[in-house]
Amino acid sequence: MSTEDFTTADLYDEHGETLQSCSTQFRSYGGVARFSGPISTVHCHRDNALVKTVLAEPGEGRVLVVDGGGSLESALMGDLIAGSAVANGWAGVVIHGAVRDVVALGELPLGVLALGSNPRKSAKDGVGERDEPVGFGGVEFVPGATLWADEDGLLVTRP
After folding, report:
1. Is the whole model's pTM more than 0.90, yes or no?
2. 3-state SS assignment for residue 7
3. Which cofactor does it need (predicted)?
4. β-strand partners of 77
């Protein structure tokens, strides 16, 4: 399904409770407001080394969901890592935490949702887990499930 072929409201009307609706209120920072794809996950806290590593791999239209614990104390992604995501074919990134370089993010052809922004860099120690289920906003984000995001919010297939 191309990104122009859906709205989350229409998807929910059609599929109802077979989809999970995320209650977390994200802000859109990317140059693409509507995106979808299979989920990959990272769980980390104030350390974006794993985010950088994953987004440097072939994205193949996937969406990276980053559970940063809702922390706004430092950014988990900026323009350089987001640029790598674009170059490697990722459709979008959803960050339960902060981003930075928001003007530059808005110029990239990438869906980016985050809770807020902070210019502070995060640690680069590589602490965290990847491709394990993460949860926030009443949704379980399981690797391989499909995520759809637009101006109304985001939906995810149930595990």
Report:
1. yes
2. coil
3. a divalent metal cation
4. 99
Percent of the residues in the chain that have a pLDDT greater than 70, as a whole number: 97
Other CB atoms closer than 10 Å to residue 100's CB: what's the count? 22
State the number of CA atoms in the 13 A half-sphere of 1 facing the CB. 16
Residue 54 gets which letter from DSSP? Answer: H
Closest Cα partner for 155 from 32, 24, 56? Answer: 24
Element holding 74 (H helix, E strand): none
Look at residues 43, 34, 36 and name the one whose alpha carbon lies nearest to residue 62. Answer: 36
Query: What are φ and ψ of residue 85, in 5° steps?
Result: -60, -45
Question: Partners of 19 in the beta sheet?
Answer: 157
3-state SS class at 11: helix
